[in-house]
Design brief:
The complex is a heterodimer of chains A (434) and B (112). Chain A is mainly alpha-helical and 434 residues long. Chain A contains 17 helices and no strands. Chain A has a single domain (25-418), classed as Ammonium transporter fold. In chain A, helix 8 (188-206) runs antiparallel to helix 13, helix 9 packs parallel to helix 11 (282-296) and helix 13 runs antiparallel to helix 15 (375-408). Chain B has 112 residues and is an alpha+beta fold. Chain B has helices spanning 13-22, 70-81; strands at residues 2-8, 29-35, 42-46, 49-53, 56-65, 89-95. Chain B has a four-stranded antiparallel sheet, with helices on one face. In chain B, strands 3-4 form a two-stranded antiparallel sheet. The chains are: A mainly alpha (434), B alpha+beta (112).
Chain lengths: 434, 112
């Protein structure tokens, strides 16, 4: 009698399900990924944008990005996470938002493990919070040098909860686009198309900078921008690699595709500039790299080497066109090309994923491609998600903008402040003191 | 006593200074200035947006010499600073009424 009892007791631990037990490797990787993505905002994006700003506004640009991170992250904790990843009681409501059951992270215990993998739920909350913060920070680039700092921060607070969080729920959190089988590995649609489009909307609503197209508005330091791009690249390994939700081979695939696409995109932009303008610029190298990072984001864990090459090259060319041709033609002052680079490269990546994703059911998420190899069907789902998210962001951003403007008494600094420079007029600071 | 002001291309500063030292000029004041003449309009490229820049960086050198040194100094500057391309600069010669060396109180030609 005793022998089989002992044997059963010895066998019990191996019967425990993998998801019930914390995996230290996965947890460590997710924590590092979170820190990497964090680095992308107050360091990477802030420098990338700051370096391209005129020196009289450079601290303001940096402050908008830094401020977006801290405000956006707290709003995520307060309500964003609940709306994005909660489960609403009504199934109908849950098709769009996750409800308010986890406001201030209530009903989550520190010992709870994420449903995404063998790591704590709290780590998942922070990881996703860094995504929320960078999405809204992307939009700042479109309205530098003229938006009121107060209006921007209020916009950030509301937009994170009202626009970003529902979109996350739609695509990742169990909403209807997720159910339809939309493929977005790390946020090509959710983060980059979203943030880039919000930027364009703001640029149009706030209006062009005084003297746009007449006065030379030169970047203070392209070196800072290139440094920012390098930090963004570094951090993006957490952005794409961490979206595998484990220290596993899919993360390894994402590492490779991210590197290939980014390097090819940088080379492509440099080649395009060299060919068309006869002078390859460092700003072009940095911009191309970022375009590649954006283009591979929706596809990093779904494509192979060939797919990564294509996404990098074509994504970069599409963004290059958006920045050098489309912007001039349509005349909007998307000052730092949030729309040109984030929206367009993200859009291309999202749609191309339908055709470039490898038909490997160990990689794919549920959807037409995984179920029946139906690439056209998958493309239609990708298109649907792009259109739905696009419309939601468009309308949502307009509404949030007007609320933020009403609450702060106007979105734009007056002309004297704009001419003096926001560093002095808004912050009372200078970027350099001898 | 004459003042010689020379506006030259910045990269020529070291060459001109060394050539002047060889003919006995041992002091000058140098400032970074910007300006344009017929060289106006050079363009810079940022993400495909071309900026036409009117003001170009130049160096202004100022020195005080005795009247008999003027020709030697101006021809030295002209030879060393010339590249043959637009934007080489100009030299202005003017009269100086009085010079005082602060440390010693020496005046005029003793203060050069």
């Amino acid at each position: 009698m005793k022998k089989w009892l002992i044997a059963l007791m010895l066998a019990l631990p191996s019967l425990a399900l993998a998801e019930d037990v914390l995996d230290t490797g996965d947890t460590a990787w997710m924590m590092i990924s979170t820190a990497l993505v964090l680095l992308m905002t107050p360091a990477g994006l802030a420098l990338f944008y700051g370096g391209m700003t005129r020196s009289k506004n450079v601290l303001n640009t940096y402050a908008m990005v830094f401020g977006a991170f801290v405000v956006g992250f707290i709003m995520w904790i307060i309500a964003g996470y609940s709306i994005a990843f909660g489960t609403a009681e009504s199934a109908a409501v849950n098709k769009v938002i996750g409800g308010f059951g986890n406001l201030f992270l209530s009903n989550i215990k520190w010992t709870d493990l994420s449903s995404m993998g063998a790591f704590p739920d709290f780590v998942f909350v922070v990881f996703q919070g860094t995504f929320a913060a960078i999405t809204v920070a992307i939009a700042s680039g479109s309205v530098i040098e003229r938006i009121k700092f107060s209006t921007w921060l209020v916009f950030v607070a509301i937009w994170t909860v009202a626009v970003y969080a529902p979109i996350v729920h739609l695509v990742w959190g169990g909403g209807f686009l997720f159910d339809e089988g939309a493929l977005d590995f790390a946020g090509g649609t959710v983060v980059h198309m979203n943030g880039g489009l919000a930027g364009l909307v703001l640029a149009v609503l706030v209006g062009k900078r005084t003297g746009f197209n007449k006065v030379a508005m030169k970047p203070m330091s392209v070196m800072l921008t290139a440094l920012g791009a390098a930090i963004l690249w570094f951090g993006w390994y957490g952005f794409n690699g961490g979206s595998a939700f484990g220290a596993n081979a899919i993360a390894g695939l994402a590492f490779l595709t991210t590197t290939i696409a980014t390097a090819m995109a940088a080379i492509t932009w440099m080649a395009a500039e060299w060919f068309i303008y006869k002078k390859p610029t460092l700003l072009g190298l940095a911009s191309g790299a970022v375009a590649g990072l954006v283009a591979i984001t929706p596809a990093a864990g779904f494509v192979d080497v060939t797919g990564a090459f294509i996404l990098g090259i074509v994504g970069s060319l599409f963004a290059f066109w958006g920045v050098t041709v489309l912007k001039k033609k349509l005349g909007y002052d998307d000052s730092l090309d949030a729309f040109g680079i984030h929206f367009l490269a993200g859009l291309f990546g999202a749609l191309a994923t339908a055709f470039l994703a490898v038909k490997d059911n160990d990689l794919l998420w549920d959807g037409p491609l995984k179920e029946s190899g139906d690439r056209i069907g998958q493309f239609m789902v990708q298109l649907e998600s792009v259109v739905v998210v696009g419309l939601f962001t468009l309308v949502g951003t307009v509404v949030v903008y007007y609320i933020a403007t009403a609450l702060t008494g106007g979105a734009r600094v007056d002309e004297e402040c704009e001419t003096m420079g926001l560093d002095e007029s808004v912050h009372g600071e200078k970027y350099m003191n001898s | 006593m004459k003042k010689i002001e020379a506006i030259i291309k910045p990269f020529k500063l070291e060459d001109v200074k060394d050539a002047l030292a060889e003919i006995g000029i041992t002091g000058m004041t140098v400032s970074e200035v910007k300006g344009y003449g017929s060289q106006k309009g050079h363009s810079e490229l940022y993400r495909g947006a071309e900026y036409v820049v009117d003001f170009l960086p130049k160096i202004k050198m100022e020195m005080i010499v005795s009247g008999d040194m003027v020709d030697k100094v101006t021809s030295t500057i002209v030879e060393t600073a010339r590249t043959g391309k637009i934007g080489d600069g100009k030299i202005f010669v003017s009269d100086i009424e009085k010079i005082i060396r602060i440390r010693t109180g020496e005046e005029d030609s003793e203060a050069i």
